[in-house]
Write a structure and sequence with these properties.
This protein is mainly alpha-helical. Helices cover 45% and strands 0% of the residues. The relative contact order is 0.10.
């Protein structure tokens, strides 16, 4: 649909390009701010990496490095969220000498 494609090309100029924040990560929003919920994570700001193709090693190596750091941060947060809380419970149970039960 050619008219739709042309409309998308026109609207594209209003989108903010991906930027690297002061923390070295790809910014999730147009401006930096203190995120009140650090565990609420999405990856939409990395769309240009995949499935898009605007973040590439050839065209944007600095953005690729920032994207790598963003992914590592997400993985560590998800790991803690998934595993860390269980480990915390195990440690508490061990400290309470309740190895056969979970709090």
């Amino acid at each position: 649909d050619i008219p739709f494609v042309e409309k998308l090309k026109d609207v594209k100029k209003y989108l903010f390009p991906p930027k690297i924040g002061s923390d070295g990560l790809v910014m999730e929003w147009a401006e930096e701010f203190e995120d009140p919920d650090i565990h609420h994570r999405h990856m939409s700001h990395l769309f240009g990496l995949y499935p898009g193709h605007t973040i590439t090693l050839q065209k944007t190596p600095r953005l690729c490095k920032a994207a790598t750091q963003s992914i590592i941060k997400r993985v560590l947060e998800l790991y803690y969220k998934a595993v860390g809380l269980h480990l915390e419970r195990i440690i508490k149970n061990a400290n309470l000498q309740r190895q056969n039960t979970m709090l």
